[in-house]
Design a protein that fits this description.
Strand order of the largest sheet: 4-3-6-5
Oligomer: single chain
Helix content: 40-55%
Distance between the termini: 106 Å
Largest sheet: 4 strands, antiparallel
InterPro entries: Trigger_fact/SurA_dom_sf
Shape: globular
Radius of gyration: 36 Å
Strand content: 5-15%
Structural class: alpha+beta
Keywords: Membrane, Transmembrane, Transmembrane helix
Length: about 500
């Protein structure tokens, strides 16, 4: 064979072997890299799946009402609102409910009902109700063409700006801060939406009005729901009539029992019956109960007592009622239909400084603040300036501003008399000193609707609200709700250190 033919043969053999070699090489490369690739991909896939699941739960629908779908993220806002509501009611006494403020709420058993396993479950159910009610009324407002006022919009902007300020304190941007406060996925956009829905809900209810005929018809339907009674109340406890011989005994039963003896009960009843026969208003056990509602009388004494005062009693007539071994003798003075005009007014209060108070540099005494305020009022007593004075001089701005429709529960009595004097004119101001040496300053704006109309209007609004929200159709996914930020710790949020023992 020639050299050229031999060379050609080797080239052909080489070309035929190349694919096989390539296959062998490729196989070796894939085997060498596959383990490393798997090692890299497994964490990526795992964390990707986890992130995807978390993201899907954040976007899962917890509550669906009308065309609105409340995601797990948005549900956090309603949940926090439910928690705020219960905390604002009980404050530092919240431990009386059996709540440990230092333990996450989703780890604390709820003892109030078998319906809920934990406090988080209870609050989640409350949040569900709030979400349904909010969007139901929101839709009614939109349907009626109602929209937020400029003041409402400004209020929302102010709240957002306040959060921005707090975020800056912690060197966070706004979205980071909102997420830290409420939960994963929470940010300015969805929090603003929540505020808009809540604000429209409140504003629309406030805007509801009723004609005079509608109010009168509702009042006449049951006048006792709106009237108040003033009466004398003589109250004695059977335990006050225990004698030493009754209470001192060697028997274990007597020392552990909290029930008064039959003799003490009989003595208390006898004293009460004597007051029914001859009611003495100057007796040390007699109190004047002024303008009490039917519900107040029912809760403090009994439904029978309330019904008697409102429907049967005549002024000067007395009757005995018993509750838990306490004997009440009631004598009606008057039934009040509350058909008097309420007032719109502003007030501020400056408490007298304690004698041992230590003043900070530049801090003014209460006497100095009162003197400056008196001088300022002489200079300018307009409503605009008075609102500024509240911010400048009052001890507590929020607590000392009277809102519209103030009624005759205002104290002190001399201030109440002055405010409800028919000669009052817009812009009148008056200063009063209370028994503790503190100074009240009132600014009269004008007379408003009657207190009866205010009560009836509020009743009609409540009935409208109950009717509308009870008719709402919705779905609720309790499992999805569990992926919201339910494990809140009260002490971490409100700085409360009290705990249940």
């Amino acid at each position: 064979m020639s050299a050229s033919r031999e060379r050609k043969k080797r080239m052909v053999e080489s070309e035929q072997a190349a694919p096989q070699q390539a296959k062998k090489t490729k196989k070796k490369l894939s085997e060498g890299w596959i383990f490393a690739i798997i090692v890299i991909l497994i964490p990526v896939i795992v964390f990707g799946v986890i992130f995807g699941v978390q993201a899907s739960w954040r976007n899962a629908t917890v509550v669906s009402v009308g065309d609105h779908k409340v995601s797990t993220t948005e549900f956090n806002y309603f949940y926090r609102g439910a928690l705020n509501s219960i905390y604002s009611t009980y404050g530092s006494y919240i431990s009386l409910l059996g709540i440990d403020t230092s333990t996450p709420l989703d780890e604390q058993s709820y003892a109030g009902s078998d319906e809920y396993d934990t406090w988080a479950d209870f609050l989640a159910d409350s949040a569900k109700t709030s979400a349904v009610d909010a969007y139901t009324v929101y839709d009614k407002a939109v349907e009626a063409g109602f929209s937020l006022s400029d003041d409402d919009k400004a209020s929302i902007d102010n709240e957002i700006n306040t959060l921005k300020t707090y975020a800056g304190v912690y060197s966070m941007d706004l979205d980071e801060y909102i997420e830290a406060m409420f939960g994963k996925g929470c940010n300015e956009k969805n929090y603003r939406h929540y505020l808009e829905v809540s604000k429209l809900h409140d504003a629309y209810i406030e805007s509801l009005t009723y004609t005079e005929d509608e109010r009168n018809a509702r009042y006449e339907q049951d006048t006792t729901e709106f009237d108040t009674v003033t009466y004398y109340s003589y109250a004695v406890k059977a335990s006050d009539f225990e004698t030493k011989s009754d209470s001192s005994t060697d028997s274990t039963e007597a020392t552990t029992s909290t029930e008064p003896s039959e003799e003490a009960i009989a003595a208390a009843r006898e004293a009460a019956n004597a007051m029914v026969s001859d009611f003495k208003t100057d007796d040390e056990n007699v109190s004047v109960m002024t303008e009490r509602s039917k519900s107040e009388v029912t809760s403090s004494i009994s439904e029978d007592a309330a019904n008697w005062l409102y429907t049967e009693a005549k002024p000067g007539e007395a009757k005995l009622f018993e509750k838990d071994n306490t004997f009440y003798v009631l004598q009606l003075t008057s039934i009040n239909d509350n058909n008097y005009q309420t007032v719109n007014a502003l007030q501020l209060y400056i408490a007298k400084d304690a004698s041992d108070k230590e003043y900070k540099d530049g801090e003014k005494t209460s006497e100095e603040r009162v003197s400056e305020l008196e001088a300022a009022l002489k200079e300018d007593s307009s409503e605009e300036k008075f609102r500024e004075y509240i911010k400048t001089y009052a001890d507590n701005t929020s607590s000392y501003t009277i809102t519209n429709g103030a009624h005759r529960s205002i104290t002190p009595e001399v201030a109440r008399t002055w405010l409800f004097d028919s000669s009052r004119k817009a812009g009148d101001t008056k200063e009063f000193v209370d028994d503790n040496g503190g100074t009240y300053v009132f600014f009269f704006q004008d007379f408003a609707e009657t207190y009866r109309d205010l009560l009836v209007t509020n009743k009609l609004k409540t009935e409208w609200y109950d009717e509308v929200t009870s008719a709402a159709t919705y779905t609720y996914d309790a499992d999805a709700a569990k992926h919201a930020n339910l494990g809140l710790t009260i002490a971490n949020i409100y700085g409360s250190s009290s705990s249940s023992n």
